[in-house]
Amino acid sequence: MEHIVDLETWPRAGQFHFFRTFAKPHYAVTARIDVTHLMAIRKARAISPYRASLYAIGAGLHAVPELCMRFRGDTVVRHEAVQLSMTVPKPDGGFNYAYVPFDLDFITFDTTAKRIIDATALATDLTPNDGADDVAFLSCMPWRDYTSLSNAMPGPDDCIPRVGWGKIVNHGDRSDMAMTLEVHHALADGAHAGAFFDAVQSALNTL
Fold first, then answer.
1. Helices (H), ranges, 3-128
2. pLDDT interval class at 124 (50, 70, 90)
3. Taking Cα atoms as reference points, which of 164, 158, 142 lies closest to residue 22?
């Protein structure tokens, strides 16, 4: 379901109208995410660090209402839930797009995500987004640790969040990885990005 945001009472209406005039209204924030707990439990509980990261990102997005908001012209809507769309490598070296519904229960989410991702890897046709905006785009770059990341954007009206994350790096008795959130400034500010990363970290720490 989606709800129309009342611009007359929305505290960010001024920022919304201001940043909608920008030619390049997107910004990206990269933070280090601690995955020490995840790496410590993954073997005993047969947890995929990749799918655990997907789950934590979903928890982070749904913890911040602004990251589930989208605009259509001058109308802003808030989705109660968004799908997670990630790139899935194919055996021939190409990739497809998967669409996974988020579930706050990790086991339910993990089972569904594995089934969808496995099927998507074998699909023959690329399945780009059909125009629906109740989605967030995710991409993992496990080959490199990085300090910043940006995404290709079709234009200033694209308001779908992008989340990327990189290689897990060990530092003695702890491990971390880079994660980037890229958003449209008309819908989200730095405080919202900070709340996203806090929720991602909390989800990983409580698996």
1. 13-19, 36-41, 49-63, 106-121
2. confident
3. 158
